[in-house]
Write a structure and sequence with these properties.
With 77 residues, the chain is mostly helical. The chain contains 4 helices and 2 strands.
Length: 77
């Protein structure tokens, strides 16, 4: 049996909450992206923390759902 680390929308929102991003459970990814973008405008000093989270997700061979990757790609630009 193979166990795969998977980041879905719920996990992603929880990780953002751990960084104190004001996202609510069950929020669609498009809205998560908007909230995160606005939060980073208000708190630009938090951008490095968010980017470290994204880098860790990419480097640790974790499977990330496409909807979550879309948000990550958008914020990283």
């Amino acid at each position: 049996m193979m166990i795969v680390d998977l980041i879905d929308e719920v996990d992603f929102i929880e990780q953002l909450k751990a960084l104190e991003v004001p996202v609510n459970d069950g929020l669609p990814m498009a809205e998560v992206e908007q909230v995160l973008s606005q939060w980073l405008v208000e708190f630009p000093e938090q951008r490095p923390n968010v980017l470290v989270l994204f880098k860790t997700m990419r480097e640790e061979n974790i499977t990330v759902l496409p909807e979550v990757l879309k948000v990550i790609d958008s914020i990283e630009q």
